[in-house]
Known about the structure:
Largest sheet of chain A: 11 strands, mixed
Oligomer: homotrimer
Strand order of the largest sheet of chain A: 10-13-16-19-24-27-30-33-36-39-40
CATH architecture of the largest domain in chain A: 3 Solenoid
Helix content of chain A: 10-25%
Largest interface: A-B, 59 and 61 residues
Distance between the termini of chain A: 80 Å
Number of domains of chain A: 2
CATH class of the largest domain in chain A: Mainly Beta
Mean pLDDT of chain A: 96
CATH topology of the largest domain in chain A: UDP N-Acetylglucosamine Acyltransferase, domain 1
Number of helices of chain A: 5
Low-confidence stretches of chain A: none
Shape of chain A: flat
Strand content of chain A: 25-35%
Amino acid sequence: MTRTARELAQFLGAILEGDSTQKVAGIASPESAGPEDLIYVDSPKQLDRAACSAARCVIVALEAAVEGKTLLRAPNPKLAFAKAAAWLLPEARIVEGIHQAAIISPQARLAAGVTVGPYAVVEDAVEIGAGTQIGAHCVVGRGARLGERCRLYPHVTLYAGARLGARVVVHSGAVIGSDGFGYVFGDGRYWKFPQVGTVEIGDDVEIGANTCIDRGALGATRIAAGTKLDNLVQVGHNVSIGEHTVIVSQTGISGSSTVGKNAVIGGQVGIADHCHIEDGAICGAQAGIPSGKTIRAGQTVWGTPARPLEKFKEQYAWFARLPEIGEFFRRLKARFPDA
Amino acid sequence: MTRTARELAQFLGAILEGDSTQKVAGIASPESAGPEDLIYVDSPKQLDRAACSAARCVIVALEAAVEGKTLLRAPNPKLAFAKAAAWLLPEARIVEGIHQAAIISPQARLAAGVTVGPYAVVEDAVEIGAGTQIGAHCVVGRGARLGERCRLYPHVTLYAGARLGARVVVHSGAVIGSDGFGYVFGDGRYWKFPQVGTVEIGDDVEIGANTCIDRGALGATRIAAGTKLDNLVQVGHNVSIGEHTVIVSQTGISGSSTVGKNAVIGGQVGIADHCHIEDGAICGAQAGIPSGKTIRAGQTVWGTPARPLEKFKEQYAWFARLPEIGEFFRRLKARFPDA
Amino acid sequence: MTRTARELAQFLGAILEGDSTQKVAGIASPESAGPEDLIYVDSPKQLDRAACSAARCVIVALEAAVEGKTLLRAPNPKLAFAKAAAWLLPEARIVEGIHQAAIISPQARLAAGVTVGPYAVVEDAVEIGAGTQIGAHCVVGRGARLGERCRLYPHVTLYAGARLGARVVVHSGAVIGSDGFGYVFGDGRYWKFPQVGTVEIGDDVEIGANTCIDRGALGATRIAAGTKLDNLVQVGHNVSIGEHTVIVSQTGISGSSTVGKNAVIGGQVGIADHCHIEDGAICGAQAGIPSGKTIRAGQTVWGTPARPLEKFKEQYAWFARLPEIGEFFRRLKARFPDA
């Protein structure tokens, strides 16, 4: 949708400098932008990228200077750009209408404007909120409930009874509500512990491609509103994740652990069972949190087993000097053989 | 199915105390249980949870005391609960009948009671044992063979020729029999090493969502009876895994490695190629087993590169003291500058 | 296809010794081979395996001796075997013809010899090159382009606009072109950063099962010709990977990082954002490359944070001796309490 710089400034609450009638029709990186594409730069080092760009309208920080452009000044240019993009670009539709090659149970209830792609299967007693899009090949199991304006890309599987809030986005290959990994050993074999709980996903959650979220064993697995999961993440049974938390690709969270709100969990982090990652904690990439451990609110941890970042850095700096320490140790040992 | 406490006690071989006519119709956690739900507690600390529960019938340890409940005493309450759950709850069916929108080759042989969900594809020369359920959207490739009473959830892919024993459970998105990752570099490019072997899954194996098991290159990839794989696990070509072994989420096992029976492999473990994890070995979460290494039977290892747990703990305790050692080293160095 | 030893020798440029009329009809491992199967051995230790095999024709190194066999001598027997296998074995077809239960947009353009399996969905404006096979249940999104002779196994998802070169092989469950993981935090919640870029896969790339490759945010994610990705690999937005690079299972590459050509990335490696892995670098399994780090051309790194292999080995050797150093430190401390 084409807007003027003035309209954009008003929408963003940004300070406008330059040609307020400048048209903005799309977004781009500085290098690939055309004249009517909006761009942004958020560090002084990148001002040159903006200056050299064909784009006529640039979102910049409050104090930045770029010659010959229409400027939209905002305290957080990247944030303003993200908001502008969502406003300018119509969200690409996953599927239009209800495809005749979708199989929808007569016992399912679809609200107004629901669309369902080819070969999708919607089982009995499913409820789907208004405007939700179910991509091609999705399977929505018995009794699952989805809120309004969810977006399921092709090949998503919701096991029976899974519950999604409003505006949940699920990427291809994600599996929600599969059995948790629980067995009891006895009589020389493993017996399956019942995995009959539920899974509840809050509003505005986004779930990456091929990510797996197990149902609870007896209780629920819960992911609260606004939380974002990257691709190939594993969420075990009875895990609870708070609001507005970010979990990067290939991280695994074992059974019954909790992650608070506003936490940041890096890529390939391993959180063992019954851990508590409190609100606002940060776990660096590849960190390993041992079973039952608590990471305090706001703490940043690193390494395996995870420890506070400062400690990790200090220990690691000495680790790097180990050969030097070791050699000195060898010489001292020769000098004090009786020690 | 509703049972009495007496019937349950008989089935479990448990010692009954209290009202033997008490009806039990389901299972639950102590907190969510209704009067006719069975619950269990397995540590003295949890007896209060049982006492406060609405459940009237509780599985407890031999020596435990809970007032006002009908007790089923068993040496391993969690195991008894798992067995009771399997007995009380009818296994949820994945699919009923053979859906008209399934494509089944006339050359496939389906035994009695096989069910196939919508949009499933069963190719030529497939053999499927009695009572097996093929979920919606599964693809069963040419010549694959499945034993009796297997359960394939939606979106499982079996490549041509994959073989599954009886009662194998496969969760959504799992891929069984894909090409192994084998190439030979020559003339400036990679040439594919032939990946034309087989994959054989034993009875009672359970395979998690989005787990990948590659076929053998020339020989076979084998997973023996009773072994359980969590979600997002990778099993490379020509790997062999013994009976009753447990492999937690996101672990990867590289080509030609072997894992014995009754082993426990934690989450995110990396086992390089040509390793041997012997019977009963335990690999802690995130452990890394270097190429060609053997972990002896019954040994517990930790860390990367993996070493025995006691050694890991000792080394790690000193690692945590490195800053202190380093400071002392600095002072000694000043005192013995010629050392 | 049956060949004679002479034909094979000519094709491979190998030196023939023995019966040039010996027929070769297949390939196998020495243990499972029949008389007309070709085998190879590439180390002196394995010559016995060849000698005991039923196979009559063996590819061996230039200097190796095996009694009673027809020998094909090549400088790299494994490479010669891989080439011979590709020549002898017809590539198994994924799908024949265009299945009537495939949904192909009238706006899609399919070149000669394209085959499409049951329940595959090919959306508007897709272009597919000659001889490409689209497996059952694949979803090829709007505007995607595939070159000649690609092979998509069942259940592959290509998001809108994905571009694949010629002879690209994609295994089941792989997702190409999903949204990158990019958000901006503001006003107490995460805002999606636009993920509207492209993904471009070069010729002869192979992509493993359940691997995820995100589209660029504004620009492109690129994987160059001849590169091979194993199963469950994660490639973030705007990543660029050069030619003939190998990436083992469960490795993750975060946004905007680059990997050069001829690199080897082991399994479960984590490459944080904005890293540069230069040409020919080798990252050992489970290595962790911190954000923004460069690994120089040809360097081999290990560990987290990754460091040169020799340094890792030296530091690690001293790490294993830490208990000994620590004890000596304790005794010295007693002897020099004032230090």
